[in-house]
Specification:
157 residues, alpha/beta, 6 helices
Length: 157
């Protein structure tokens, strides 16, 4: 099912009323501004922004005006990961201009899964690729679990 630009725009407007998907201690208005800016930073492999993909785990401002960011990537070993970190840092600097420093920590625990995507990100993925990545991922996880259980049963027989 394709998603129209109008539906995506309406979803974006509704997303503004939702809680951020990352942990933060920023004021609500600053968080909303940051989310809108992060929606202009795109993953190099999937043409969806880093916020709606669920790549940003945490944005915390400490007492020394240093912003600490925990983010992940959709795949370990992405050759453009350093560039993406710089882009996220620049976006955060734009939203929080009085930050003295921005420390980006790329983490893989917990690993990224499609379940981390926002509703809008999932709709964008469906519009681009023609299938629901979350449903596909859950199906593959179920199949892997079934195969593991079958292998264990064979080994224990």
């Amino acid at each position: 099912m394709a998603v129209s630009n109008e539906e995506i725009t309406n979803s974006t407007n509704n997303e503004n009323d939702e809680e951020p998907i990352f942990k933060t201690n920023l004021p609500s208005d600053k968080t909303k501004e940051l989310i809108e800016i992060l929606r202009n930073v795109y993953d190099p492999e999937i043409p969806i922004d880093v916020y709606d993909l669920g790549l940003i785990y945490e944005v915390m401002l400490d007492n020394d005006k240093v912003v600490h960011v925990k983010m992940t990537l959709t795949a370990v070993g992405c050759p453009l990961s350093e560039n993406l970190g710089y882009q996220v840092g620049a976006a955060i600097q734009q939203a929080i201009p009085d930050a003295k420093d921005i420390e980006i920590d790329v983490v893989f625990d917990p690993p990224w899964t499609p379940l981390k995507m926002t509703r809008l990100g999932r709709e964008m993925f469906k519009a681009i690729y023609g299938y629901d990545i979350v449903e596909q991922w859950l199906k593959s996880q179920n199949e892997q679990s079934t195969q593991t259980n079958n292998q264990e049963n064979i080994e224990n027989a």
